[in-house]
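Per reviewer request, we include the raw input and output of the structure prediction for the construct analysed in the revised manuscript.
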Amino acid sequence: MATTYFGLGGNIGDRFAYLQDAIRGLADFCVIEATSRVYETAPVHVTDQPRFLNMAVRARTDLAPRTLLTHIQGVENRLGRVRNLRWGPRVIDIDILLYADRIVDEADLTVPHPRMAERRFVLAPLADIAAAAILPSTDRTVSDLLAALPPDDDILMMAESVWDVERGEAPKAALSG
């Protein structure tokens, strides 16, 4: 099984519930091993939209990267993801950040994620669960890449977790937002 890291984010509706539903969907074809804290972040590129919640998930899977992408898009579609504006509002976005130590460069699938080294909203949650992970395309660790970014006071830790890995479910405490 390949260890895979996902970045999850969304800024429409009950953002916490969509993160939980996305993890539940990933658990249909992956073994969820760890989840990061949840961070609230400002939108990038298209800034006239609500703030995002972002997190990372470590999982194991037998699926090849292309098949994994197809399954992820199925989860996004079931949750109501609409792709009508690049970098626009969305209920959920699930990205494959890392897939074992592989580099994938296809027309619609690039792993490691091509812009993750520039994005605190990706690296901060990923560092929670994979600080020592090495990006095969850079040979640098997640924590090194995060430390190289300029400071950003506009990223707020919102929750310790939205998923109980041991129980394989959302925690009992009600979250909304």
